[in-house]
Structures are given as C-alpha cells and as structure tokens.
C-alpha cells in the first residue's frame, strides 16, 4: 500500500516532477516519509487500542488482542533499532519491490541488495529474539 501511495504521489505531481533533479532521491524521500508516518500511526493506533480495547469493531478474545498488541509493539521497537537503510530495504522488499528497484530507490549497487537484506533480516531476528527474553 505504501509503495502504491509513493507512486500515486509521483503521478499527482504531474509536470512538476519533471523539475525534480534527482527522481530517485525524491521517490526515496517520499517512501521513507510515508513509512515513518505509517509506523507513527500504527503506534498511535496500538496505544489507543490498549487504552480503549472495547472500541474495536470486531471484538477478539482479550488474550489474543493482548498478544497481538505485544507483538506489534515488539516489531515496531525492533524496526526502530535498525538503521534507516536496513528499515527501508526491508520495507521495500516486503512491499513487493524487486532488488533492482530497491537498489535504485536506496542508492546502492544492485549486487549488494541481497546482502543488505540478509544482514537486515538477521539483525531484525536477533533484536526480536533479544526482546523476547
């Protein structure tokens, strides 16, 4: 959804986008800002649900809701511990971008995308497991 929104913003710029000197940097900045906004909104939503659990449209068992909130908070905390490049690469990969597209957006060599993603995923797993202890 965020990748789609990024490109919708580019289309919405119309002729003004032609004036941008570095399209890759512009797309990267828009995608990064959208991802940051999404994480912030998800955090606020999780906090609201925690404070007002009865406001959900479809009520799930309290235990499941609590576990889901804990997991969401852990994932958000781990993502914040990763560097911006790692977070962005992971986000783009799970948003369905191909390695060549990730390389262009982030500004790295296409041959290194796999390595960057593997290391980012390993860091994510390590940090996630560390939080679970």
Short description:
With 133 residues, the chain is mostly helical. The protein has one domain.
Question: Explain this structure to me?
Answer:
This protein is mainly α and 133 residues long. The chain has one domain. The chain contains six helices and no strands. The chain has helices spanning 2-13, 23-51, 62-81, 84-94, 99-106, 113-132. Helix 3 crosses helix 6 (113-132) and helix 4 (84-94) packs across helix 6. It is flat. The mean pLDDT is 81.
Radius of gyration: 17 Å
The number of helices is: 6
The assigned structural class equals: mainly alpha
**Percent range for β-strand residues:** under 5%
What ranges have pLDDT less than 50 throughout 5 or more consecutive residues?
none
What gap, in angstroms, lies between the N and C termini? 33 Å
Order of helices and strands: HHHHHH
Question: What is the count of β-strands?
Answer: 0
**What number is the mean pLDDT?**
81
The number of distinct structural domains comes to 1
Largest sheet: none
How do the strands and helices of this protein lay out in sequence?
Blueprint (H helix, E strand, L loop, with lengths): L1 H12 L9 H29 L10 H20 L2 H11 L4 H8 L6 H20 L1
Helix pairs in contact: 1-2, 2-3, 3-6, 4-6
């Amino acid at each position: 959804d965020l990748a789609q929104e990024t490109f919708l913003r580019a289309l919405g710029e119309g002729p003004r986008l032609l004036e941008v000197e570095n399209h890759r940097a512009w797309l990267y900045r828009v995608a990064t800002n959208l991802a940051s906004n999404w994480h912030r909104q998800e955090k606020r939503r999780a906090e609201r649900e925690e404070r007002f659990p009865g406001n959900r449209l479809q009520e799930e068992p309290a235990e499941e809701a609590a576990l889901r909130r804990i997991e969401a908070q852990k994932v958000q905390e781990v993502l914040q511990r990763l560097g911006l490049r790692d977070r962005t690469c992971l986000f783009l990969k799970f948003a369905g971008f191909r390695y060549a597209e990730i390389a262009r957006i982030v500004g790295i060599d296409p041959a290194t995308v796999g390595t960057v993603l593997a290391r980012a995923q390993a860091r994510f797993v390590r940090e996630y497991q560390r939080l679970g202890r």
